[in-house]
Amino acid sequence: MGAPGWQDAEDSSSARACGTLLPPRTTGTHVDSTSGQPPKPHRGIYLLPNLFTTGALFSGFYAALAAFAGNYVAAAIAVFVAAILDALDGRVARLTNTQSEFGVQYDSLSDMCSFGLAPAIVMYAWSLSTLKAYGPFWGKVGFGAAFVYAACAALRLARFNTQVGVADKRYFQGLASPAAAGLLMSFVWATTEYGIDGTMAQFVAPFLTVLAGGLMVSRVRYWSFKSGPKSDKVPFAIIPLAVLVLVALYVDTAPVLFLIALLYVISGPVLTLWGMRAARGRREERGDENKSGAEPPPP
Prior knowledge:
Elements: H1 5-12, H2 47-68, H3 72-96, H4 101-126, H5 136-162, E1 171-173, H6 177-193, H7 205-216, E2 221-223, H8 238-251, H9 253-293
Antiparallel strand pairs: 1-2
Helix pairs in contact: 1-3, 1-6, 2-3, 2-4, 3-4, 3-6, 4-5, 4-6, 5-7, 6-7, 6-9, 8-9
């Protein structure tokens, strides 16, 4: 992810560089006293934003290991930590003016691990793998659902990178990978806390996993919570709402996170349908105006 951390995380990669190559340094006409050639340019990476991205990568890696160990709540929390770090590294890079193509690519690789592979592994270890008890076919269904999600995350990130600079920054095309991961991990976290294990959710988990993957590669528009150069400013009414959300998260974190993620996922199709309806209404109005302005046919 004002917006939740996982919602802002992916979009920030379009304007950030979490580690960047420094421009070559030259010292005028200075030459090496031995070879008589100019010194080789010094190259390096900016440390601070890179640390945030590396932290997000570590969190995704830890989530996978925790899932293998059967600690699914810790795995889910680790993915949310990755989303927070992924959102912060973009802001740090913008504040310190350390943006570059290198950072964008490194961020995408980190996102693929934290929001593509890690959630797929968690879902498979927690619930999808239990489908094998019903026979080889259902075992393949569980494996396939996890792979579909991971593949869709990779496609989503690749498409996002190719659209940087040309897409409308106010909206995501398709569900952002951190939001998709947030939906799955909040579901795992909430159900586990309420005593529902993966076996009890084994027929819901494949549907939810494939749904999250499909929305990532869809053309459904999602609000990115960025409306322009002053997008960091929000209306005053948002502040009390944010306070209420924080209190709700404190009272019962996992279900509230799942509710927020679910509402955001639903908002995409609603926003798309609303836009289609509004566009159709405008076309009908223009058609009525053209008809009313046309001259009557001759007798």
